[in-house]
Design goal:
Blueprint: H1 2-18, H2 21-37, H3 39-43, E1 46-48, H4 60-68, E2 72-79, E3 83-89, H5 92-95, E4 96-98, E5 104-106, E6 120-123, E7 127-129, E8 134-135, H6 141-148, E9 154-158, E10 164-165, E11 179-181
Parallel strand pairs: 1-2, 1-6, 6-9, 7-10, 9-11
Antiparallel strand pairs: 2-3, 4-5, 7-8
Length: 184
Amino acid sequence: MREIKKRIRKEILEKLKKQTRKEALRKSDEIKKKLFSLPEFKKANFVMLYASTEHEVNTGGIIDGALEMGKRVALPLCKGHREIVPKEIRNRNTDLKKGTYGIHEPRKHREEADPGEIDLVVVPAVAFDKRKVRLGKGGGYYDRFLKKLPRDKITVGLVFDFQLLESLPEDSHDIPVSKVITNN
């Protein structure tokens, strides 16, 4: 199963790199609009987002938009033992720095957020399938985090349409998300 996941990751990452920046930003804006129109997002007071990498759905506008709406926003800080800790931010430009794996993450002085207070978690992925099973980058950070969340928490995956596959191999530790949003 590990080899199948590795092959799928490679194929999807190649497709992501072939997509033009302009196209990715246009699709990201469509995804942002769909996320912001979700009743669960509208109702959420505290959301956990993530800082996107170059080829992922761009989350900069999502983070800024959520903050402008007056929502509390947390982003993950990677710690040892493949663990992420949500830290609350107030400003994307001043509260983030380049961290683990070159991904922007909250500065260490930012206040740790209680996962029980977070209403909705937006989850990154290389791919999802139609059952909402997630294929991450292989580190297991989000699987460990999602396992600790109360079951009533809404989790939302954001991917481009070609990242939503018919089915993915599923391990016992994989935690499906509540919803997946694509540009289509």
